[in-house]
Amino acid sequence: MLRLENVSKIYPTSARPALDDVSVDVDQGEFVFLIGPSGSGKSTLLRLLLREETPTRGSVYVANWNVARLPNRKVPKLRQRMGCVFQDFRLLPTRSVADNVAFALEVTGKSEHTIRTVVPEMLELVNLTGKADRMPAELSGGEAQRVAIARALANRPLVLLADEPTGNLDPETSDDIMLLLDRINRAGTTIVMATHDRQIVDAMRRRVVELHLGRLARDDARGVYGARR
Ligand SMILES: Nc1ncnc2c1ncn2[C@@H]1O[C@H](COP(=O)(O)OP(=O)(O)OP(=O)(O)O)[C@@H](O)[C@H]1O
To answer: What membrane topology does the annotation report for this chain (predicted)?
Structure first.
């Protein structure tokens, strides 16, 4: 479902490769933690999957798309099939909770009818039905992240890419978010989550892909965060 084949990425302004000959294969329905020290290439890997960057060498596949070779006009189609959540939530501050979720459907051209059906479904999924009319500034961090997750799932993506989704949350709220992501994954959505959170990785015991200075250092089927450094 996601495949990197001997991928290297060298940014023009950087001496060492951000990714160096990395090969990873992720099946549909997997939950993968992407770990590694700051600067090891995690965000670069996610950006390559989204075609926000192109590899210097190697190939990137998402479902049947050869991502690097995809014509520009098809990139929006690719991105529609990939939901994203980030450490800083990235909600639209002037739109309500419901409208933030609706926005994802509007930009992909969904009908009014679909939007009216899907938005409440998504809010129910993340347990925010009662907060549909709140503004983002009125939400806790955990609630804001749940809105972001609802928005990311609205178009029924093949995969959810999460870049440090618990990075701004306290441990208890992080656990709630992980329970939600686990539930979403068990319902069939593939999840790739970049994180520095040792406790979460150790508690979940899912696949762990570790990068070090751009190289694949480890790929464990049911891994832990690893030796304390
Ligand atoms: N746009 C860019 N231009 C030049 N160099 C970059 C760019 N983006 C990232 N890099 C470099 O590529 C390497 C990998 O960065 P990347 O952001 O992928 O790491 P990361 O593992 O996500 O780090 P963090 O955990 O801090 O988010 C770093 O050396 C970084 O400085």
So the answer is: Peripheral membrane protein
Q: Which amino acid is at 69?
A: R
Question: What is the rounded distance in angstroms from the CA atom of residue 66 to the CA atom of residue 217?
Answer: 25
Residue listed under structure tokens 């694949």: 216
* Prediction ipTM score: 0.95
Q: Are 187 and 12 in contact (CB under 8 A)?
A: no
Closest CA to 24 of 52, 55, 57, 61: 61
The neighbour count for residue 7, using CB atoms within 10 Å, is: 26
Residue 156, exposed/middle/buried by CB under 10 A (0-12, 13-18, 19+)? exposed
Phi, then psi, of 213 in degrees rounded to 5: 45, 40
Pocket of ligand 1, beta carbon within 6 A: 11, 13-14, 18, 36, 38-44
Pocket mutation for ligand 1, best pick of 4, 19, 40 (most atoms within 8 Å of C-beta): 40
Tokens representing 143? 């609630």
Ligand 1: residue whose CA is nearest its atom 18: 41
pLDDT digits (tens, 9 = 90+) for 36-63: 999 999 999 999 999 999 999 999 999 9
